[in-house]
Write the structure tokens for this entry.
Amino acid sequence: MRDNFTDFAHIFLNDVPLMDVRAPVEFAQGAFPNTVNLPLMNDSERQQVGTCYKQQGQQAAIALGHQLVSGRTKQDRIEAWAAFAQAHAQHGVLYCFRGGLRSQIVQQWLQTEAGIAYPRVIGGYKAMRTFLLNTTEAAAAECGFYVLSGLTGTGKTEVLAQLAHGLDLEGHANHRGSSFGSRVTGQPAQIDFENRLAIDILKKRAAGHRTLVVEDEGRHVGKCSVPLPLRQRLEQVPIVCLTDDFERRVERILQDYVVLQCAAFVAVHGPVVGADMFAARLLESLDKLAKRLGGSLHQSLRDVMQRALALQKDTGAVDLHCDWISVLMRQYYDPMYAFQRSCRAERIVFEGDEAAVLGYLRERSAGVSR
């Protein structure tokens, strides 16, 4: 058997396939990339064993667990574990919550019932999760950072994607960050978001990057909260501002939030239902800003948006959307950005278009900015 694992950095740096033998309810609360949930006990069985443990103690709970997972049920689960182990014979590992009884039982049954010697993670999910939390905290303390800021629609995400040392918070959160930023595929659980971000940080630091670039976000990216140590650090670091002309910004917003967003809904839900769901989502996103916009401006924008959606549905034309986008940018997003910029003016170290900003940040990719 390959050695049982304690090298968590190796696991995440090499995208080692993971077999999670916790119950589905535990898996849903948070897991790691490259993980398959093949539980020793399902949710009902786990609950019964937990109740027995509290009332009758460990030995009775273990006996009940063996009773519940026996016969055909046991055989089906061993076959599923064996299939994973055979598919990932050289690089996979298994784990439970603390690397204790459940993963030991799975490991033992694989050996005795299927003839497969398979390693497990010592410390389990809890140890790996702690390692990733510490990874983010260490980066916040040790790395240099730049915040990439700029008016709505300047293409900050596109610039970030061209930087080897860029951290895409929006990508990890599966959200574009604004009131209109929700995606059809939904967001990950908070723990999953934190785990993905930490693994990205780990890989970038392993590649030699001592300075990281993060897009300007608030405390949250959609429903996902930026980890506190990182958020506190980003409130202190230099800011680089990306610029672009107004017309290109409007066109970029049109493509991202109307054309591509509608196509995503249609791809998932079909042309009729998808288009209707997209329209409802767009109106809902505007309604979230109703109090900030004020009643008359909100209603005016809503009327224009509804006309644009109707024209898009009837003819496929999207140009009318530019009317509400332009007004929303001029009267809401741009003034809000101007205020935020004035509050942080002393932190701004560079400003320019895409080419200039890319050049500036690439020159500083290896340095530490404190």
About this structure: Residues 8-122 form a domain with the Oxidized Rhodanese; domain 1 fold (CATH 3.40.250.10). The mean pLDDT is 94. The two ends are 46 Å apart (CA to CA).
